[in-house]
Design brief:
- This protein is α/β, with parallel strands linked by helices.
- It has a domain of 70 residues: 2-Layer Sandwich (Nucleotidyltransferase, domain 5), CATH 3.30.420.270.
- It is built from 3 helices and 5 strands.
- The chain has a 5-stranded mixed sheet, covered by helices on one side.
- Helix 2 runs parallel beside helix 3.
- The termini are far apart.
- This is Biopolymer transporter ExbD.
- It holds the Pfam family ExbD.
- It comes from Bombella saccharophila.
- The accessory proteins ExbB and ExbD seem to form a complex with TonB.
- Its main location: membrane.
Length: 141
C-alpha cells in the first residue's frame, strides 16, 4: 500500500486552482431529496368543487333591501339610519318572514373596516335571510 504525498521535493509552491465540488454536490443532493419529499405533500389537498363566479350585474328591484355602510361605520336601511344591532336584527327578522324573502344588498364604502360589514352579515344569518349580495363597482380602466 503506497501513498503519494508530494513530488519528493520538487514542490515549487504551486497553488492548487481546482475547486473541490464534493460539498456542493452533497448539498444539492440533500436539497433535491427534500424537494422530492415535500412536493407531493404540498400538492395533495382535499378534493372540492369550487363555486364558479358568474360576475353578472345585480339588478336592484323595488322589493330589495339595500343596507349601506358609510366609511365611519354608520349603517342605513335603504336610506333610514339604523340605531343599533337590535334595530337591524328586528328589521331583518321581519323581512325574513316575507314570502318570497327580499334580497338583501350590502353596499359598503371602500374604506370601511370589516367589522360593521361582518355584523350585518352575521345579523342576516341570525335572522334567516337566504340571499345576501355585496354591491361593488366595476374597475375603471
Amino acid at each position: 500500500m503506497a501513498m503519494n504525498i508530494g513530488n519528493g521535493g520538487d514542490d515549487d509552491g504551486e497553488v492548487v486552482s481546482a475547486i473541490n465540488t464534493t460539498p456542493l454536490v452533497d448539498v444539492m443532493l440533500v436539497l433535491l431529496i427534500i424537494f422530492l419529499i415535500t412536493i407531493p405533500v404540498a400538492t395533495h389537498t382535499v378534493k372540492v368543487q369550487l363555486p364558479v363566479d358568474r360576475n353578472q350585474p345585480t339588478k336592484t328591484k323595488p322589493g330589495n333591501i339595500v343596507l349601506a355602510v358609510t366609511a365611519d361605520g354608520q349603517s342605513y336601511w335603504n336610506t333610514t339610519p339604523l340605531t343599533g344591532h337590535k334595530d337591524l336584527l328586528n328589521r331583518l327578522m321581519e323581512a325574513a318572514r316575507q314570502q318570497p324573502q327580499p334580497q338583501i344588498q350590502i353596499r359598503g364604502d371602500g374604506s370601511v373596516q370589516y367589522m360593521p360589514i361582518g355584523r350585518i352579515v352575521a345579523a342576516c344569518q341570525e335572522a334567516g335571510i337566504q340571499h345576501v349580495d355585496f354591491i361593488t363597482e366595476q374597475p375603471h380602466d
